[in-house]
Amino acid sequence: MDQREAKNAVVALIGEDGIAAAHAPIEEASGLPNAAYVSDDWLTLERDRIFARTWIFAAAEAEFDAIGVQKPVEVAGAPVVLVRSATGINAFHNVCRHRGAQLVDAPCEKSTVTCPYHQWTYGLDGDLRSRPHFGGPGVNSRFDGNAGPSLDLVPVRCAVWNGCVFVNLDGSAEPVETWIAPFVDIAGEYDFTTVRWAGKIDFEVDANWKFVFENYMEGYHVFSLHPALLKHAPMNTRWSGEWVQSVFHNGYIAPKLTPGRGDELPHYPGLTDEQTRAGRWFLIFPTFGAEVFADQFCVLTAHPVAPDRTREEIHIFLIGDEAATGDRYREAREGIFAMWDALNREDLDAVERLQKGRRSPAYDGGRLSPHWEGPTHQLGAHVIDVILG
Description:
The protein is of the alpha+beta class and 389 residues long. Helix content is 30%, strand content 27%. The longest helix is centred in the C-terminal third of the chain and has 28 residues, at 330-357. The mean pLDDT is 96.
């Protein structure tokens, strides 16, 4: 789809008025029209024009703790498989070159990637190794790295940054270090080379992926939904946040450390007292959310499954190996996981109510708080701008 076709599709789905409302000053603005949250055609636009063209967080490097570990993921609606080989993590389109069957449908650990349909077998480097009975009964085709690009698995661009595995489906994105640099600059007080993966929490959300991040970005709802978080950081410590290039950031300085937020686990080196009490959260467009406290780095990512369904993951990284996996900090580590699970579940009902409301013909995008929701509103404008190129 070229730029002109994308513009025609956007206008057909949300109209010129919808485009204008997304770019209006916050005092006059409304949210994106309903079609942006309920339409299959709109999600197709997002997959083609946004998700396929940038870096998408796919997994934690520590999930691939042995050669042969394989994990299927979906990126921009396409099946991808991540594979740990002797040289690192590789990504491939998760389809056999024979009949297009999905190769890997669940995480596993195997010495080869083998199609369950006709047993075509690939090495962990993606090279085709064998085709049993391909030339007739007992006539097997075997290869020693010479099958060629028409038979080997099709690679997907893959990069690792401080334990985070990213993929770029169309291969056209800037280097991952360049893409993530604005975030690293803003969060300059934190040494992310010290973080280690401790595990993850999975959620199935019956709502559009944008609702997950619209809720994540704004602090307006904290007084209503998050009693423990409100106690940790009252409303008068909060602001609306702002966008810098393709990175949204927000934060507060809490009065003191509390359980699950900096009070028991090792901290990043060199933080001041004020930095120790800070809570910072970021969104690197489109779906790499990162929340940072003195003792943790948590990745919140959302994978669109359908216009009204999202698979959400929270990956928890702690400071140093002992904090992430050692017995000394087991209880404190379990407290971190419990805190994130409870906090996210407090949001689920509200986010899913937003999705249900977008089925109403009476809803026109709403009226937004100039104090709290300017950056949230800008997310919708950013989605449109990137689709339009």
